[in-house]
Specification:
Strand order of the largest sheet: 6-7-8-3-9-10-11
Distance between the termini: 22 Å
Number of strands: 11
Number of helices: 7
Radius of gyration: 18 Å
Largest sheet: 7 strands, mixed
Shape: globular
Structural class: alpha/beta
Helix content: 25-40%
Oligomer: single chain
Order of helices and strands: EEEHEEHEHHHEHEHEEE
């Protein structure tokens, strides 16, 4: 259950790319808020602006105009050093490609982000084991990626995001490489983690079925929000 406390506030967001003489509005005046502990799906077809929006929330791209306030900070004003710190301290990422290190086992892969934080080895391993148990991989901790199925590798990816205990997790088409049964398992797992840990989860997807697992669906088309649905109800466009 989400608390009524905004953890993401987006106001009048524009992203304009130049293609020769043409201007392409990837985002065209987007505004919305996301509360703590909310599972939000940003839904749209290819080219709708959804991935650009996710990149801005994650501090990977800056806006042409508008503000992106995350965890109380206006990140659009940050320099690169501040953005790196923001991502390290507040955010976890789950990608469609699992991005696991093939030479490392599950514990070592999950512990990797903690290495960059300077956490000592014994505590890193302890936290990694806890995160892997949380995603149901107790028996696979010593396995390397090649010894695991796609679904198991994605669970390692989720554990790696969780090990940092982030306020927000950004997921980009997180089940794109998985079969339908495994996809459901992963989405139920994400639902459960959001509820148990009160983590805010923002997932980008083109798939309406995947979006149905979220508490809320923000639909985007041609860089604009065309619908905001929460618990089966259509909200006023923001």
């Amino acid at each position: 259950m989400s608390e009524e406390r905004p953890v993401i506030e987006v106001k009048n967001l524009y992203k304009i790319f130049k293609l020769g003489e043409q201007k392409v509005r990837a985002l065209n005046g987007v505004s919305f808020t996301v509360n703590k502990g909310e599972f939000v799906a940003i839904v749209g077809t290819s080219g709708s602006g959804k991935s650009t929006l996710l990149n801005m929330l994650a501090g990977l791209e800056g806006p042409t105009k508008g503000s992106v306030r995350v965890a109380g900070e206006n990140i659009e004003k940050y320099n690169e050093r501040q953005l790196v710190k923001y991502r390290r301290d507040h955010v976890g990422f789950i990608f469609q490609a699992y991005n696991l290190m093939p030479t490392l086992n599950a514990i070592e892969n999950v512990a990797l982000p903690l290495t960059f934080r300077g956490v000592d080895k014994s505590l890193r391993e302890k936290k990694a084991v806890k995160a892997l148990k949380l995603v149901g991989l107790k028996k696979y901790m010593d396995h390397r990626p090649t010894e695991m199925s796609g679904g198991q590798q994605q669970r390692v990816g989720i554990a790696r995001a969780l090990v940092l205990e982030p306020e927000i997790i950004f997921a980009d088409e997180p089940t794109g490489n998985l079969d339908s049964v495994t996809t459901e398992e992963i989405l139920h797992l994400l639902q459960d983690l959001v509820r148990r840990k009160a983590t805010t989860l923002v997932m980008v997807t083109h798939d309406n079925y995947l979006a149905s697992f979220a508490d809320r669906r923000i639909r985007i088309k041609d860089g604009k929000i065309i619908a905001d649905e929460r618990n089966g109800e259509l909200q006023e466009n923001v």
